[in-house]
């Protein structure tokens, strides 16, 4: 088992994420704590758990807000079919393999690793977008382009948002311009 501790901070304002990432036989489990402030200035504290299979397809994700009953749990068969915590089918998410947690740069690692793009190639994907602190769920179209070794262009195909992401050899974001920056590990 390989275990790594990773931390990010927002470029501006208070906040911090501490992620414990474990890899066993190429499957990932992530336990994370995120402290942040919304655009409206409201603080939040999020805990999340995420598990992938050996092909880096998300199989389950759970989010909970501290000091609230707000909780979200989703499961996937790895082929793009999702259910809620009670096992009810969520056909509006059909075809989504990855998740994007708005308060964390970690979820960019999942498609980067799963797609294994060669330099100058790209792929359009549909993800389960999890907005924090609302814990709302929706489909979102995105594109990842490999710009070269350890460098990717992320694009939201709906909003037009773009960011060039330098990553480490594990596909973990080092800098998410204007949003998150990786803190040095000790």
Automatic annotation (TrEMBL):
Pfam short name (any one): Glycolipid_bind
The record's listing under InterPro entries reads: Glycolipid-bd_prot_put (IPR009467)
Identify the domain of life: Bacteria
Q: What is this protein called?
A: Glycolipid-binding domain-containing protein
Naturally occurring in which organism (per UniProt): Archangium minus
